[in-house]
Specification:
ten-stranded mixed beta sheet, five-stranded mixed beta sheet, 19% helix, 291 residues
């Protein structure tokens, strides 16, 4: 089976584990995903199965992301979330006015220091690998943009927020920075991604729902989207007759039009991604029939 599952990943599961469950369920040859979620986080996670993994590089990941998240004030962990080890504690709990003021200060273009426990490379190694090895890790600030940061109120022992932000923004760091501006400490205890890659959480299907369909012999495959799903920004190019066979075998095709990527089709059958250069169409990723 080849295509995309737009998954609502559950909490307390790695993105890779979620992909592996779908990989076995659909009997695919391989899998991949776009935009890793922390194990504690839930929400939108596009997962590619089989031949769809060839399309991962062509998905744009430069679009706005939206998260709901919760912060518990008064302590901080080494990971900046409740999965880590507590390293500091205080009795200071900010007022609503202080929190609202902090949110205003963080909106716009800011330099954000990522968490030490993150997948960012530091001197050729993942930061979290160095941290787990007990080494000192210096995280350099990175430019990000916060479009909206809204305080939603206090409920279930948690101060709740919504953020609209650029790719590369760490929600755990936002929680830390809100607390810092308020003169206290904070730890994120919930993250839920509700918008990413032009999709919203309404487009996603829950993993336990798919598993129930699978276990009961129901039609779970109807939630598998086509291999070319999510590529709508790339123009279409149709090939005919012998050109299709030549293209599939790696041959170049004479074409007209502007340079750039195109989605190549044989009638309605998706062939892959090509690039027009001058008057030549060159294959970049080819999806063979029956693959």
């Amino acid at each position: 089976m080849n295509g995309w599952i737009i998954l609502d990943k559950p909490e307390n599961m790695t993105s890779r584990k979620a992909g592996h469950i779908l990989f076995k369920m659909f009997g695919s040859s391989t899998f991949g995903h776009i935009g890793t979620l922390d194990p504690m986080a839930s929400g939108l996670l596009p997962i590619a199965l089989g031949a769809a993994t060839k399309m991962v590089p062509f998905w744009t990941d430069d679009q706005i992301k939206e998260y709901l998240f919760g912060v518990q004030f008064g302590y901080e962990t080494d990971t900046l979330d409740v999965c880590g080890t507590e390293i500091s504690r205080t009795d200071i709990i900010p007022t609503d006015d202080q929190i609202l003021n902090a949110c205003k200060q963080l909106v716009g273009n800011i330099d954000q220091i990522p968490p030490i426990y993150s997948a960012i490379h530091v001197n050729g190694q993942r930061a979290y690998e160095l941290a787990r090895a007990g080494k000192n890790v210096e995280m350099k600030p990175r430019p990000v943009k916060i479009y909206e940061l809204e305080f939603l109120g206090y409920q279930n022992d948690t101060h709740q927020f919504r953020v609209l932000c650029s790719p590369g923004t760490y929600v755990r760091s936002i929680g830390r920075d809100i607390a810092k501006i308020c003169g206290t400490l904070g730890t994120v205890n919930m993250i839920r991604r509700i918008q990413s890659n032009g999709l919203t959480i309404k487009d996603a299907v829950k993993l336990d729902f798919l598993e129930n369909l699978y276990n009961n012999g129901s039609d779970f495959k109807k939630y598998l989207k086509d291999v070319d799903f999510g590529l709508g920004d790339i123009p279409v190019w149709d090939l005919k007759d012998k050109d299709v066979d030549l293209y599939r075998s790696g041959g170049f095709i004479g074409v007209d039009g502007n340079d750039g990527l195109v989605r190549v089709y044989d009638d309605e059958r998706f062939v892959g991604i090509g690039r027009r250069e001058g008057c030549i169409l060159k294959p970049k990723r080819t999806i063979n029939q029956g693959v």
